[in-house]
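The protein record now logged underneath.
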Amino acid sequence: MITILLLILSNCFMTVAWYGHLKYGHAWPLWKAILVSWAIALFEYCLAVPANRLGYTHFSGFQLKIIQEVVTLFVFTGFAILFLKEKLAWNYLVAFVFLALAAFFAFAFKSPGTAA
């Protein structure tokens, strides 16, 4: 559970780093948007690296990546709706259902294990 919590927190930072400047940073030169994003992303790395290291004791690398992608979609959906003021269209919901099915298949069956 700590892995998922750390991934949620890290994705909050990364979403702001990658997309926050789209709403308020239009007047900034590109170099400034990059530097501010890097500064924010440092916190993301400080959470994502421990999340993956701890998570690898319970999940495979593939499963960790799939968890991260699902978390990213949930975090970004909230960000896009609440911060960017975008509407959630039906086709995005259909895409999310297919991604949820992908996550189901990743966890529903026994993993063959890690490579030696």
